[in-house]
């Protein structure tokens, strides 16, 4: 028994040495902008917030250097449930009231705050409270304004301000926040709350992330899409931090590009360039700051639309190496996020076919070469870099496709893009009569034969499983070439 344990320890030690666990590295995030907020009474009160209606109007264009802006209009209906008149200095936070700051030691503020009480403009002052967040030392700034609440009467408070979005410069998505937790200081629960987002075009799950909404698992709130609006509704709730709201949406300039190119292909259905630009616009609309596809949108639907557009482009212009590359990149990036969800080998093969075609047409294209190097570094049995160029082994041999972790069961049906005539012809030629550039080098090893049992690791070496997991991890972690 001791001998067996010793052997096991030795094997595990070798695995750790040969396949070290990568260190976790936090992504560098842009400074968090101040979220909007509900007003706070600043002390004990008998005044209840009957309702709040918050309109977040995402602006079509933003000033230079801004990652996105929204004009916010918030209306609150308050009622004094007590028997005595109350004179309160109502507070509205100008920066993050939690004291967390922006993560870089700063505390940015909302801008252009304007307040009305019962329809009349009121003058606001500035006060500060001690910071108990512990991340920054500067006091928390508030706007303060006087409001009189007669017993049994409704009082309306309207707040308008400009809200900056948070995003990476190269990310296609911008995020906005709104804090309801500050409303917990009023009497009892909040009667109802409606958060309405207005976009400068029709809103849908393709341009509003499914991660938008209230940050609580206590309730499931399905947003309602109607024209250019998305609405979230709550009733009779105690607003703790879980009810704070965030909006994640495609940056308007990215989505306007999709709409513009959609119009172009409608007016010019035989324009290969317009179809290619549409495919690229869809792809860019869900690309994150590292060049990967985001999977927190309706990524399957967007991928299919992008794929169909690229198909049109390469069919209408089969000798354009750049559109073949763009299509190959889309397929590879999509495969990177779905490979563990089912059998998506058709996506992988199609990506390799399009990339092979692109490099045959333009062997020195740097972006296509970078993509081939990336795939080679992840799956060396699929693409080999030889003296005469890249050899797409997966298109001339029968490799074992590492498409899923062995213990996972496929639960999705893969989308299968149609093969363009040029790509089909190129693949057929490569299989029937490989050119000099397509022949495996003398030093290349033949791809392993698939295991008849269907298990990717049965009958393999003891390192098969770590190699598989490592290959899958590399696909997600190794960065793509810079997007076109």
Q: What layout of secondary structure does this protein have?
A:
Elements: H1 2-18, E1 36-37, E2 47-58, E3 69-80, E4 86-93, E5 111-117, E6 120-121, E7 125-129, E8 140-149, E9 154-164, E10 173-179, E11 190-198, E12 213-214, E13 224-226, E14 229-237, E15 245-250, H2 252-267, H3 272-285, H4 299-316, H5 321-338, H6 345-361, H7 366-378, E16 383-386, E17 389-392, H8 393-396, H9 421-432, H10 464-477
Parallel strand pairs: 1-10, 2-11
Antiparallel strand pairs: 2-3, 3-9, 4-8, 5-6, 5-9, 7-8, 10-15, 11-14, 12-15, 13-14, 16-17
Fold and architecture overview:
The chain has 484 residues and is of the alpha+beta class. The chain has two domains: 36-250, Immunoglobulin-like; 253-477, Alpha Horseshoe (Serine Threonine Protein Phosphatase 5, Tetratricopeptide repeat). The chain contains ten helices and 17 strands. It has helices at 2-18, 252-267, 272-285, 299-316, 321-338, 345-361, 366-378, 393-396, 421-432, 464-477; strands spanning 36-37, 47-58, 69-80, 86-93, 111-117, 120-121, 125-129, 140-149, 154-164, 173-179, 190-198, 213-214, 224-226, 229-237, 245-250, 383-386, 389-392. The chain has an eight-stranded mixed beta sheet, with no helix packed on it. A hairpin with a 2-residue loop joins strand 13 and strand 14 (229-237). Helix 2 runs antiparallel to helix 3 (272-285) and helix 5 (321-338) packs antiparallel against helix 6 (345-361). It is elongated. The N and C termini lie far apart (59 Å). The model is unreliable at 1-29 and 399-478 (pLDDT under 50).
């Amino acid at each position: 028994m001791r001998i067996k344990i010793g052997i096991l320890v030795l094997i595990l030690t070798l695995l750790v040495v040969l396949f070290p666990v990568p260190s976790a590295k936090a992504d560098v995030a842009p400074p968090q902008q101040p979220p909007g907020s509900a007003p706070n009474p600043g002390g004990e009160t008998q005044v209840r917030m009957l309702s709040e209606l918050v309109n977040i109007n995402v602006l079509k264009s933003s000033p230079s250097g801004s990652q996105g802006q929204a004009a916010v209009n918030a209306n609150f209906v308050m009622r004094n449930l007590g028997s005595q008149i109350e004179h309160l200095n109502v507070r509205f936070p100008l920066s993050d009231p939690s004291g967390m700051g922006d993560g870089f030691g700063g505390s940015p503020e909302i801008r252009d705050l304007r307040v009305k009480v019962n329809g009349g403009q009121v003058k606001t002052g500035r006060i500060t409270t001690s910071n108990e967040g512990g991340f920054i030392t500067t006091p928390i700034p508030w706007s303060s304004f006087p409001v009189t609440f007669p017993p049994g009467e409704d009082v309306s408070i309207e707040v308008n301000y400009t809200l900056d979005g948070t995003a990476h410069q190269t990310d296609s998505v911008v995020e906005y926040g709104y804090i309801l937790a500050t409303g917990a200081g009023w009497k009892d629960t909040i009667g109802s709350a409606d958060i309405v987002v207005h976009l400068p075009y029709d809103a849908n799950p393709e341009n509003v992330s499914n991660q938008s909404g209230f940050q609580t698992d206590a309730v499931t709130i399905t947003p309602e899409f109607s024209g250019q609006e998305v609405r979230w509704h709550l009733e009779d709730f105690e607003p703790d931090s879980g009810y704070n709201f965030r909006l994640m949406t495609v940056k308007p300039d990215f989505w306007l590009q999709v709409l513009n190119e959609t119009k172009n292909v409608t007016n010019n259905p035989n324009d290969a360039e317009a179809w290619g630009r549409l495919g690229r616009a869809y792809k860019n609309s869900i690309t994150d700051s590292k060049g990967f596809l985001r999977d927190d949108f309706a990524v399957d639907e967007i991928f299919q639309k992008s794929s169909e557009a690229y198909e049109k482009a390469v069919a209408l212009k089969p000798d354009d190496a750049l559109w073949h590359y763009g299509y190959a990149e889309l397929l590879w990036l999509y495969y990177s996020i779905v490979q563990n969800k089912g059998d998506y080998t058709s996506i992988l093969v199609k990506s390799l076919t399009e990339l092979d075609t692109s490099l045959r047409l333009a062997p020195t294209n740097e972006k296509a070469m970078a993509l081939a190097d990336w795939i080679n570094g992840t799956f060396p049995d699929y693409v080999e870099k030889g003296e005469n160029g890249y050899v797409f082994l997966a298109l001339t041999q029968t490799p074992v496709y590492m498409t899923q972790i062995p213990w996972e069961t496929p639960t999705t049906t893969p989308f299968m893009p149609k093969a363009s005539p040029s790509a089909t012809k190129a693949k057929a030629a490569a299989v029937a009569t490989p050119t000099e550039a397509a022949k495996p080098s003398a030093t290349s090893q033949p791809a392993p034969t698939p295991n008849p049992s269907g298990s990717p690791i049965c009958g393999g070496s003891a390192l098969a499983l770590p190699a598989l997991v490592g290959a899958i991890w590399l696909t997600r972690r190794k960065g793509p070439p810079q997007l076109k």
